[in-house]
Amino acid sequence: MDPVPNSAPLATKLRNTLIQYHSIGDSEWRVAKKTKDATVWRKPSEEFSGYLYKAQGVIEDVTNRIVDHIRPGPYRLDWDSLMTTMDIMETFEENCCVMRYTTAGQLWNIIAPREFVDFSYTTSYEDGLLTCGISLDYGEVRPNFVRGFNHPCGWFCVPLKDYPSHSLLTGYIQTELRGMLPQSAVDTAMSSTLANFYSDLKKALKP
To answer: Which positions fall inside the START domain (predicted)?
Structure first.
């Protein structure tokens, strides 16, 4: 088990990695799923043998409120149907923490429940916010769970220039679920999970 890393260099590196993903040209992405709420693309990940996913959609709300619902905190468990538990294990300065959370089984439990321990960091980006994370090898793995691993992931949330009460939410997710899983099942689950994330978030934000 690794000790908790120094938060400042890790936060800087994570932010820079996400900004690099955000500048990847459109031609490198392939559409994986499209719904009324979001479009999901994917490209081979440079971190592991799976895919880096990009999801994007417009949310009718202000940036701060949206990010408060996404980042570790009291709102997330209320609306995210995939997340079953969440504990903040360590808190650092400047919107940094280490959290442990578990996810529900997916695809009729072909994908069993997973546990993750992530370093999370929220910072300003342009006129909006970026909340990002990466998994750590930290803490004991609980029985009945496979420990998954999130390579650098994050959500950019910026107000639309002409409609500041609406925000463009763009996510980059690359999750290594681990365990014995057919890759096709993982790919199906990831695209659907990301599209559902947007529809669930929109419902949660409705006044």
So the answer is: 10-207
